[in-house]
Amino acid sequence: MPQVEPSRFWRWAARCALRLGGWKIQGTLPNVPKLVMIVAPHSSNWDGYWGMAAKIAMGLQVRVLGKASLFWWPLGPLLRKLGVIPLDRSSPQGTVEQAVRLIRESDKMWYVITPEGTRKKVEHWKAGFLKIARMADVPVLAAYFHYPEKIIGLGPVFHSTGDDVADMATIREWYRPWQGKNRGTV
Q: Taking a C-beta distance cutoff of 8 angstroms, is the pair 35, 139 a contact?
């Protein structure tokens, strides 16, 4: 799996932040060089903070999509260093193709995306993550935030069957128990 150069200080600081916030990480990271990681439910800006703390604490090198509007000085350079890719949501054409190209051209790459596409409650998830995984021929790793127990969890690895509707139903069912900060279950 892709990992960053070890930085004992930053890993310690991230672990302290998680511990002080009452968060724990559960699950096992698969030893897979390339995958699409989905994280849900995404209901608060705090998800980004806790997610980045978990990423740093575990020493993971992942690429994350972030709103282009977040890339102002001095936050922009920091976000880029943390692996965040600016996404202009006003021009969604090519997002899937860009992600597929990034994954295919990398020896190791974990690409993280929130299937809801927003912090608001949605009835239907965006299927882009399934398209990216299928087109790049990589599995999908399910990760979640469960605010009642303050757990950042790593779940199973899903492999595309080629039937996006059935795959989405299976993944959504797996996510059913997990609760975000500002709303109930997925």
A: yes
